[in-house]
Amino acid sequence: MIKVSGRVDETGACTAIKDAAFPAPFVSGLEYGAPARGTWNIVHIGMLIPESHQIYVCAANCLRGVVLTAEEMGAADRLSTIAVQENNVLEGDMEELIIEGVSDILEKLPQRPAAVLVYTVCIHHFMGCDLGLVYDELGRRYPEVAFADCYMNPIMRKSGLTPDQTMRRQLYSILQPLEIDRKSINIIGNNVPTDESSELIRIIRENGYELKDITLCKTYDEYLAMAESGVNISCLPAAIPAGDYLKEKLGQEHLHLPLCYGFDEITENLNTLNEYLGFGPKEYEDEKSAALNALKEAKKVIGGAKISIDYTAVPRPAGLARLLSENGFYVDRLYVDSFTEWDKTDFDWLVKNKPEIKVYATVHAKMRILDRRCSEKSLAIGQKAAYFTGSRYFVNIVEGGGMYGFDGIVKLAGLMKEAFMRPKNVRQLIQMKGLGCDCCL
After folding, report:
1. What Gene3D superfamilies would the database entry show (predicted)?
2. pLDDT value, residue 441
3. Is 380 domain-assigned?
4. Segments forming the whole domain that contains residue 82
5. Are residue 308 and residue 431 in the same domain, yes or no?
6. Which residue numbers in the chain have pLDDT < 70?
């Protein structure tokens, strides 16, 4: 029982990192959704396929969110819905509902889409809906359309692949085997393009390789051409299943070069790519010096102010916390519901060297009413950190913001410095869904 009046203590919603269990510091239970909407959802991600159309098959109350997301994006014409009603459950005609509903939509659209992403939900799995039959029939009726089976299924959140991992994998499920071009490289699983100035992109382009990325595709044919690349590079943990899937389906190699903040690991990642391309290793001394200088410049401005980091801003918050701590910044809080295995080394370092750092849940029910605000001027990295601390001084990014490598650290340090000098309107900014999603429209 949680009191809704009076002072609420932090028990269960906050712990010192030295006492935090890895990878899940908090007990799962009643959850709170903070009104920070910058992360991408399945609608935003699906829109990355050019010339595609999304169809959601679910109850009317579940349709509300996806419809509003499409409308907010200015892409309502690329989304349709089929409402599941009580009689469909009682009569067991789910397969017919999907087949005839999708057919009706396709016949009424002003132009036949190249690809259709059909999103089924938990009720279809509870009832044992024969989705194989559904897609076979749709393929027979509309052979010119590529259908992708996608899912809006909350029961997938706690076991197996998460909805986010599944969506990033299914985004590439339409691709079919092509003759491999060894001079072509894909970056997969990102929602925003990786910065052209990053060492990763420079290695690819400066050595004469063609870069393909769904965030750069303007036409459906450009998207299909991703199947000819010799290797897929994934940078986010959620993209790993997509890379493994495409290796099995298309015979493409998969290099996971994670977005990280440790200098040794960044160097190792870049040299993994160099080795794959047949080049020798580099030390990247100039790039390391540039990153250290950028951090020093940011420290001059931010000084000893408290810093909070949340998991929506960067995929490895413990790694960023370690980098900043090692360079003299005062990291006070992490807003993380659970850590990934990739954060374990940096988590252990923080336990040993910065045991007092607080770890807050973001979905614990107490976070709705907990007195958690910072009384003094502080810097937040990420929308959830800004919301929970009440700081107007925040770095407004999600999923690393397209920054990567030493160049990414230089840019992030610059954003931290700028954020600390110029307050933002938190309420106005964090309620906007899918930060940066205009890149796919």
Report:
1. Nitrogenase MoFe cofactor biosynthesis protein NifE, C-terminal
2. 62
3. yes
4. 50-168
5. yes
6. 1-7, 155-159, 439-441
